[in-house]
Write the structure tokens for this entry.
Amino acid sequence: MIGRCGRDGKQGLAILFMEKTRRGGKNHVDQFTRGVTQTDVDRMDALAITHLCLRVAFSLDNIVGYIPLWDDDPFYIKEVQREKSAGMPACRCSNCAPEAAQTLLKCLSIASKENFDNIMDDQLAPPENYNLKHKFPSKRPAVKKRKFTEKDAPEVKEFSRVLCEDLYNHYNNNISPGGSISASDLFDLDDCSAILAHLDNINEPRYLRRLIGGDSFAGQIEWLYKWITIFKASRAANQPVISNSPSAPKKAKGNPILPTESIKRPTVPKKTSKIPRQPGALTKKGRERQERERVAREKKLEKDETERIKQARKDQLTGMRAASWEAHRLEKALAAADTSVTGTGARGSR
């Protein structure tokens, strides 16, 4: 289509969408080698980064099968001289006329059949600077999830203990007293860790549904959201969390424990300062780097052992084939010798 464009005397417009930077591709002229045959992928990369005339580049691609990248290319110089001697009009590609190309891009939002000739003749002024941000796909805000370390284990354990005790008491007293399904089957420590990791993001009950997957019993989400609201308020005021639910009766063969009054729960202490790092101790990034190096060494050893086993098996098969071929050759030689001896004896008897 591009090769036939303009042969009727009318101008045409071709817009090619290129990646600004292709991952794993050749994004700079220095990555190409002179004289090396360009593959189809190399030609696409070269077309995206070449600074030479695109009209000449397409012509050379059809003639010699590659995209020129250097202006001292003999084929490129020859094609440019041929176009000049043939009286072809000046090229108006984005490399030959970059300013006009930028104006054209600004006018594409208002391009139509009526004003297309004016756009091609550079007689149409670009429109006002419209805010096209609303046409772009909106980016979802990044969810800030807290990452726990070994130092956070006491805080996670205390938070999980308080939340589980209060929820179990509520379930055993108000939802299913003496039921066959235990509260620990519906809510466990993993749910507590997920809630604590997203504690600052829980501003409405529906966010909890994304964390724990909805209600495991009637009113669970509402109860958890109310508990979290009280917990965050008490933590902000540096006060202990007060449980509103009585203690759950223990399922035992003996006499059940009667529910008591409200129990004050200790709040999870908030960290206010960092523990100073010991001299010579590795930082978190250092430990992570050390762990990555250890895993890489183990993978390399495993890979080397696999390659050794494959090579040993290959050598074994090669030896077996050689031995089999040698045995077959000896067998044929013995058979030929027996035939020769038998023929000689027959002639002698005759």
Residues 242-248, 251-263 have pLDDT under 50 and may be disordered. The two ends are 89 Å apart (CA to CA). Residues 150-265 form one domain. Residues 81 and 171 are 88 Å apart (CA to CA).
